[in-house]
Design a protein that fits this description.
alpha+beta, 6-stranded antiparallel beta sheet, 4 helices, binds methionine sulfoxide
Length: about 160
């Protein structure tokens, strides 16, 4: 287990507090910062919004910017999560032909779709420098976070781009 159940529950409460206090992209940016700072195996945390056939980076927290600020829905692990509407978890990105590389240090990745009214509106994308960095507890936490931030992803439309 990489995130204990109690820290996961506490983290979810924090995300709920963020979403209660902020809206749109400001809430997404704060949620990314909070998750990245809270869990050492979360190396880079981003939120994309689905805009037509493209995923647009709305907020991120991590040591470096990604070149993948817009990802066509037919590309990458991000595209697959958006197309299928289910979480994609890859223990070793080096063995994934679909993987779009962002950082040389990345070993594992989880992409969790964000839904609104049953449709994919975006996703949470987290890279880890650890092989098999994410387990079922991470997945449950992030799927719960995805439901909480859904209105913020929808509300991020039209805001100025990050950083
Ligand atoms: N690795 C992703 C691209 C986004 S970066 O991880 C920030 C993918 O395969 O879709």
């Amino acid at each position: 287990m990489t995130v204990g159940r109690a820290p996961a529950a506490a983290a979810l409460l924090q995300v709920e507090a963020i979403v209660g206090r902020l809206s749109g992209r400001a809430a997404l940016a704060e949620a990314c910062r909070f998750l990245e700072a809270s869990f050492p195996h979360y190396g880079w945390v981003g939120v994309y919004r689905l805009d037509g056939r493209e995923l647009v980076l709305e907020a991120y927290a991590g040591p470096a910017a990604t070149e993948h600020t817009r990802i066509p829905i037919d590309r990458g692990l991000c595209g697959r999560a958006a197309r299928d509407g289910v979480t994609v978890l890859v223990d070793d990105v080096r063995s994934s032909p679909e993987y779009l590389a962002c950082f040389l240090s990345t070993r594992s990745e989880i992409v969790v779709p964000v839904l609104a009214d049953g449709r994919v509106v975006g996703e949470i994308d987290i890279d880890s420098d650890r092989t098999a960095g994410f387990d079922a507890t991470d997945r449950r936490l992030l799927e719960a976070v995805a439901t909480r931030i859904s209105p913020c992803v929808v509300g991020a439309v039209g805001a100025p781009p990050p950083g």
